[in-house]
C-alpha cells in the first residue's frame, strides 16, 4: 500500500532528528497522515481541501526554506510549520472533532498546533511562514 510505505519512509527520515525542534519533527509523519485523511473526508469543503493539498505539495516539493538535503531531518521544520498553519485555519472554520477523529499521533493535536505556531518565526525565520502561505494562496487574513 503506497500510503503506508510513504508514512514508513517519512518516519525513517525524521527518526534521526535532534536539537530543540526534534520532538516537533517527529510529528511530521502523523501530521501528513492527518492531512491525507482530511482530504478524503467528505465533511471537509473544497476550499479547505485545496489548502491541505497545497500544504502536502509543499512537503513533497524539493524547494524549501530549510532543505532536508542540507540540514537533515530538521529540514522538516518548515514543512511542519506550513502544515500546522493550514490545520490552524481549519480549526477556526470547521468542527475540531473532525480533525481529532483523524489524528493518530501521540501528542495532543491542539496543543501541538498552538505551541508550534507560536515558535514558527523562531524556527524558520520571521515572516517566512506568512510568505510561503501567501504564495500558496493562503492569505494572512485567512490565517488569523
Architecture overview:
The chain has 144 residues and is mainly alpha-helical. The chain has one domain (2-143). The protein is 71% helix and 0% strand. It has 10 helices and no strands. It has helices spanning 2-14, 22-25, 28-40, 46-60, 68-71, 77-93, 96-102, 109-124, 128-136, 140-143. The longest helix is centred in the middle third of the chain and has 17 residues, at 77-93. Residues 140-144 have low confidence and may be disordered.
In brief, what are we looking at here?
Helix 4 (46-60) runs antiparallel to helix 6 and helix 6 (77-93) crosses helix 8 (109-124). It is built from ten helices and no strands.
Amino acid at each position: 500500500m503506497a500510503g503506508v510505505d510513504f508514512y514508513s519512509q517519512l518516519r525513517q527520515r525524521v527518526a534521526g532528528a535532534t536539537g530543540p525542534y526534534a520532538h516537533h519533527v517527529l510529528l511530521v509523519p502523523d501530521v501528513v497522515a492527518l492531512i491525507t485523511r482530511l482530504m478524503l473526508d467528505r465533511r471537509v469543503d473544497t476550499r479547505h481541501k485545496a489548502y491541505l493539498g497545497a500544504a502536502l505539495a509543499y512537503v513533497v516539493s524539493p524547494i524549501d526554506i530549510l532543505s532536508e538535503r542540507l540540514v537533515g531531518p530538521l529540514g522538516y521544520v518548515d514543512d511542519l510549520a506550513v502544515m500546522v498553519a493550514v490545520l490552524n485555519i481549519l480549526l477556526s472554520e470547521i468542527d475540531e472533532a473532525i480533525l481529532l477523529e483523524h489524528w493518530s499521533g501521540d501528542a495532543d493535536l491542539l496543543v501541538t498546533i498552538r505551541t508550534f505556531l507560536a515558535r514558527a518565526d523562531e524556527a524558520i525565520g520571521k515572516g517566512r511562514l506568512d510568505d510561503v502561505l501567501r504564495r500558496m494562496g493562503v492569505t494572512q487574513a485567512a490565517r488569523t
